[in-house]
Each structure stands twice: as C-alpha cells, then as structure tokens.
Specification:
There is one protein chain. By secondary structure, the protein is an alpha+beta fold. The chain folds into two domains: about 40-405, DD-peptidase/beta-lactamase superfamily (Beta-lactamase), CATH 3.40.710.10; about 415-515. About 30% of the residues lie in helices and about 20% in strands. The chain has 16 helices and 18 strands. It has helices at about 5-20, 25-30, 40-60, 105-115, 150-155, 160-165, 175-180, 200-210, 215-225, 270, 275-290, 305-310, 390-400, 415-430, 440-445, 450-460, and strands spanning about 5, 65-70, 75-85, 90, 95-100, 250, 255-260, 275, 320-325, 330-335, 340-345, 350-360, 360-370, 375-380, 470-475, 480-485, 490-495, 505-515. The protein has a nine-stranded antiparallel sheet, with helices on both faces. It starts with a strand and ends with a strand. This is Penicillin-binding protein. It comes from Hyphomonas adhaerens. InterPro entries: AmpC-like, Beta-lactam-related, Beta-lactam/transpept-like. Pfam families: Beta-lactamase.
Length: about 525
C-alpha cells in the first residue's frame, strides 16, 4: 500500500530542519560557489524568500530551491524543506529534481546544433528525417506537411497532450515507432495556430536520434550538457545516486503520497531531464551569455547566434494580463512560443524567455531576462507545483530596485561622431558643424533655415546645456541622450542612415522644463 504523509507530520518533523537549513554544514559543502559580484540587497532577497516560503506553505511543497543567476554567476541561492519525507533529508544545491517541460529547451538546442552542422534544415518536412511520418493522413487536402520548425514552435497541428504526455516518458523506442507508423489524429491543419504538443517534442527527439546516430539523450548529454560541466544532469532517474534525489510527491485529500518514478524513454525529449541547482545554473549562465551579440571566440557547445534563435517564434501570439507587485497593477502582454521557451515583452522586465515544468511529483520554472543578463529558476518536488508566478514576482522585485538594468550597447564610432556633431550644432545654434554629415533626406524633410529657427526657440527655452552627457545606443546606428540644461532637460534621439559612411537622417530634441 502507498504510504500517506499528513502535512501536520511534515511540519512537526521538519520545522527545525527548515529553520536551520541555511546554516547546514551539509548544504554549505554541496552548495555552488556564490561569486562576489554585485550582491543583491538583503531587503530584496528577504522579500523574495518570503514569497517562495509562502508559496511552499500554501501549495504544500515538501522541498523547494530557488536561485538567481546574473552575468554568469549564481549570485543568490536558497533552499527550504526536505527531499525525502521518510528520512527528512533537506534539499540542497545537489538535490536532483525532474524539471519536466523545461527539458524542451535542451531538445530545441540539439536540433539547432545539428542544423549548424549541416545535418538538417528547419524548414524541411519532418518526414525527411522520420520516414514513418510519410504515410500520415492530414486533416485537410490543403494541409502543409509538418516542418521541423513547426514542431519546435508547437504549430504542427497536433493536439495538446499535457495530461496524457506527462505519463508517456518511458515509452520504448519500438513502441513509438509503431505509433508513428499507425499515424495520429490531428487537432487542426499545421501552421494555423499554436497548440502545445509534447508528442511534437518526442518527434524532435526521434529526429535527433536519427540524424546523430545515437539516442537523443546521449547526444544532448555528450554534446551540450557535459561540455557545460553539467555532470549530474541526465535522463535516467534510476542511474543516479538515489540518496541525491528529491523524491516526488502528490498532495491529495490532506496528505502526501509517493509519485511513481518514470524511467527513460521516448518522451524524455519533452520532459525527461533530471538536474540540480549546481548544474542548472551553468545552463542558465550559458544561455544568457549569448546576449548581447559581440565579437570574440565562441566558448560554448553551441554558437551564440543559435542560442539567441531559441527566442524566435512563428508569430502566433496569445495575449495575457499579468499582475504586478502592487494590487491593481497589471501588464497586458503577448506571448509567443519560440523554441523551447515562451517569449514575452514585459512591461517591467523587458524581453523575457520562460518555461514551466509540471510532472507527476515535480514542478519547476525558469525566467530569463537576456537584455539584463539575469535568470531566476526554482524547483519543487510536488506534482505540478511549478512556482511560475513566484519566479516572476522575484524578477519584479529585482526590477523594482534597479537590479535589472539593460546591458548597454557600445557606442559605435559613427554614432560617437554624429553625437559630437549634434552637441556642436546645439552649442553654436547652427547646422554648420553638420555640413557633410547629413543624409540627403535631412534638408528635404525640413530646410536648414527652418531647423535653425526651431533650434533658436529651443535654446531660448532650455538655455545652455551639458552636451557631453553619456549617449545611450540602442543599436550601432541609433540611440538616445539626455542633456541637463539651465531650465530643464533636453531629450534627444539620433538616427543614422544605411549609407557608408552613415549620415544623420534624424535628430530630434524635446524640451522638458524643470519642475
């Protein structure tokens, strides 16, 4: 009979471990090194911790870990609770959790790596690489064949299968082959709408297997995970030290029960990764290191440009209203599923890449903010207890105190030259310093006499300005600046042309009076 563990017993037996966990010698020995770079203020981490701990209590989560990665370092990490209800062993940075659908990013990146190697094409029909698909019956006569790209973005027309798919991880390869030969029903024609499909990512795993000549999990482990130093991460729950596992539990009718473990199999490509915080922070750091684009040698197992490609979707957005930290604060966002990540332009966080993981016995979430070089992740060992909302709130806490500044673009030589010209134009009240620096449209959009009269009016309002203020580039050919003036501020925008050499095609100045 499956043993039940009442919550009262969990709290009574574990409260001491929860309170002392931060000072545990065992955890201190197992925890990854936290680098000295920019520490997050204690009052911020206190608020973040409180949110995770409240979530743990409210959602009846035996064990929970959460971490913050910034500029390649794990700058904050915390644990709470137990990995095993029987032994009351605390969760640590070394505790292994199933991360369920957060595994999809590994499969997606393996596909891109094979593409980089010239072994497959994203726009090729998937049946080129999985012959069993060639006999499938599509839902309409005008349905396009499923492309590899469609599988990555969940627009293959296959039905949403979370409840079913979560129980298929250990399906053997030969059984999957027979399923593919028989064909599957479609929910809709491919390339017409987003519909999340675990089956589609199992197909991607088969593509990795067929193209690489080795089981997909071996390819991902040897070609991606091990080069990153993720030595504890893999797909076989039975192959790891069982004492290191955070066992998975279900909370039902006021008690915990054990969830059965799922061994390796075909559907591991959509959700089979088991990892720990010590390994996963290396994965997060590697992904974030792809931003911004730059010169310099490639240091990872997959090209930076290909990692950035994980954020590219197929324009089937869904619109959601997200809550802010304060009651009543909301943000309407459009979410696109790209390749192993859902991508959003957030009101406070900028561009984000996120994915949850929900499995029998486990829940997890990761949120990347590539423009800031920051990622937040969390693992839990209770069925479907993905702390997505809390991870996002942790990111909002960081944003609220300025801990998520966007990485600055370097100011290119053409922009620096044009910015110096803009300052001289203002100081002299004349466009003479800009001679030879203006694109052909500039004097056609407004004549120089008209522009100089407007400039005189602007100087009369603002007075003398500090034109040596820093320039904030948002690309190699455009950017903004703010000049502090006698009577207020001037907000400026500078845009160069697509010529060689680039010339000034637009220069806008707006006066903001002092309060």
């Amino acid at each position: 009979m499956m043993k039940l563990h009442p919550l009262k017993s969990l709290l009574a037996g574990s409260v001491l471990a929860l309170a002392a966990l931060g000072a545990s010698a065992e955890e201190a020995a197992a925890a990854p090194d936290v680098a000295a770079p920019p520490a997050i203020p204690a009052d911020v981490t206190d608020r973040i911790d409180a949110r995770f701990l409240d979530y743990q209590t409210e959602q009846h989560v035996p064990g929970l870990v959460w971490g913050i990665v910034k500029d390649g370092e794990l700058v904050y990490f915390k644990t709470s609770g137990v990995a095993n209800l029987e032994t009351e062993a605390p969760v640590t940075a070394d505790s292994l959790f199933s991360i369920a659908s957060m595994s999809k990013a590994f499969t997606a990146l393996a596909i891109l790596k094979l593409r980089d190697e010239g072994k497959l094409y994203l726009d090729a029909p998937a049946e080129y690489y999985v012959p069993e698909l060639r006999g499938w019956t599509y839902p309409t006569m005008d349905s396009p064949r499923i492309r590899v790209r469609d599988l990555l973005a969940h627009v293959s027309g296959l039905v949403t299968d979370n409840p079913w798919g979560d129980r298929q991880q250990d399906m053997p390869e030969e059984v999957f082959t027979e399923v593919l030969k028989e064909g599957v029903p479609f929910s809709r024609a491919p390339q017409t709408a987003y519909e999340y499909s675990n089956f589609g990512y199992a197909l991607l795993g088969r593509i990795v297997t067929n193209i690489s000549g080795m089981p997909y999990e071996d390819y991902i482990r040897t070609e991606i995970m091990l080069p990153l130093g993720m030595t504890s991460t893999g797909y076989d729950v039975y192959a790891v030290d069982q004492d290191r596992r955070a066992l998975g539990y279900r909370w039902e009718e006021g008690a915990f029960s054990d969830e059965p473990s799922l061994g390796p199999g075909v559907f591991g490509a959509m959700g089979g990764v088991m990892t720990n915080a010590s390994d996963y922070e290396k994965w997060v750091a590697f992904l974030l290191d792809a931003w911004p684009p730059r010169d310099g040698e490639e240091t990872g197992p997959v090209k930076r440009a290909s990692v950035r490609e994980l954020s590219q979707g197929l324009n089937f957005p869904r619109v959601y209203t997200r809550d802010g930290l304060e009651e009543g604060e909301t943000c309407d966002v459009a979410v696109n599923y790209a390749m192993g990540f859902a991508v959003t332009a957030e009101c406070e966080l900028g561009t984000t890449m996120a994915h949850s993981g929900g499995y029998p016995g486990y829940g997890s979430n990761v949120l990347l903010m590539p423009d800031a070089g920051v990622g937040v992740f969390a693992f839990a060992n209770r069925t479907y207890a993905a702390p997505s909302r809390i991870v996002r709130e942790a990111a909002l806490e960081l944003a609220a105190v300025g801990e998520l500044p966007a990485r600055e673009w370097p100011v290119s030589a053409p922009l620096a030259d044009a910015y110096a010209v803009a300052g001289a134009v203002y100081e002299q009240g004349s466009f003479t310093p800009a001679e030879g620096k203006l694109a052909m449209n500039f004097t056609m959009d407004a004549t120089i006499p008209v522009r100089e009269r407007a400039l005189a009016d602007l100087k009369a309002e603002a007075g003398a300005c500090d034109t040596g203020a820093p320039f904030q580039a948002n690309g190699h050919l455009s950017g903004r600046f703010t000049w502090t003036c006698e009577a207020g501020k001037l907000e400026g925008w500078l845009l160069l042309s697509p010529n060689r050499p680039p010339l000034i095609q637009e220069l806008n100045l707006s006066f903001v009076p002092a309060p």
